[in-house]
Amino acid sequence: MNIYVILKQTFDTEEKIVIQDGNISDDGVKYVINPYDEYAIEEALRQKEQHGGNITVVSIGPSRLAEALRTALAMGADEAVHVSDDAIHGDEFSVSKVLAAYFNDQSYDLILGGNFSIDSGGGQVAIRLSQLLNIPHVSSIIKLDVIGAQAIVLRDSEGDTEKLEVTLPALFTAQQGLNDPRYPSLPGIMKAKKKPFHHLTLDDLGLTETEIYARTERLSLSLPPNRKSGQILQGELHEQAAQLVQLLKHSEVKAN
Amino acid sequence: MSKSYVVIAEVRDGKLRQVTLEALQSIGLAKEHEDTVAAVVLGHQISNIAEQLSQYVSGQIHVVDHKDLEFYNAEIHFSVIKEVLDTLSPHAVFLGHTASGRDLAPMIAAYLNAGQLSDVISIEKTESEVRYTRPLYAGKAFEQKIFTEGPQVITIRPNNIAVANISDAQAEIITVEYSPPLSLRTIVRDVIRKTSGKVDLTEAKIVVSGGRGVKSMDGFKPLQELADVLNGAVGASRAACDAGYCDYAMQIGQTGKVVTPEIYIACGISGAIQHLAGMSQSRIIIAINKDPEAPIFKLADYGIVGDLFVVVPLLTEEFKKALA
Ligand SMILES: Cc1cc2nc3c(=O)[nH]c(=O)nc-3n(C[C@H](O)[C@H](O)[C@H](O)COP(=O)(O)OP(=O)(O)OC[C@H]3O[C@@H](n4cnc5c(N)ncnc54)[C@H](O)[C@@H]3O)c2cc1C
Question: Which segment of the chain is annotated as a signal peptide (chain B) (predicted)?
Answer without folding.
Answer: none
